[in-house]
Fold:
Amino acid sequence: MNTLQRQRKDVADAARRLAAAGLVIGSAGNVSERDGDLVAITPTGAHLSDLDPAQVAVVDLDGRHVDGELAATSELSLHLGVYRRYGAGGVAHTHAPMATAVSCVMDELPCIHYQLLLLGGSVRTAPYRTFGTPELAAVTLDALEGRAAALMANHGAIALGQDAAAAVEQSLLLEWGCELYWRAATLGSPRVLDAEEQQAVVQAAVARNYGTTRSAHDDA
Structure:
């Protein structure tokens, strides 16, 4: 195992983290990380909870197998489509319980909390298509336009980031957002942040360098 050693480890680590968080069960889900024209990706049929870097497959952007004993996931075309269209560095596809539940009933997850702006705002639901097909890849890629995540109707969710670890973080954020919406909806009709409110959040985040640590003496 010489090709993309670091990326293979990243993918295995990300897969185990998704499993530990309950966002994937068994072999239902897949993760990948890109390095130039090559992609390290989870193999088909492997249990993500105990995935080993040696099990991770390596393919090129045309889907040709480059390295590894196991074949890539059946959702390979979806991952490669994200890399070609959006230039991401990592992709995570999950069957996360709350995200999947929301995908079964809603056309989008509304932006009810400013943290969802990290995903681009409201999260669209791609229409249902059979798993592993070019048709599924096509509608999911469209739903990702301008977003870092999308729901997949009656199927699951997908998130992208600068690497596999970042894609996992976005997946966790999406699952949190879906659960938040569900909890709010049990109490009443959730309020949705309008365009002006969302823009104010963006401006405040930029002005305050939100999300980064700084010295207690910076403002002194």
